[in-house]
Amino acid sequence: SKEKQSQEQHLGRKTILLLKIAPDMEPQQACYIADQCTTHHFDGLIISNTTIQRMPNMKSTASQEAGGLS
Question: When comparing pLDDT for 3 and 29, which is higher?
Answer without folding.
Answer: 29
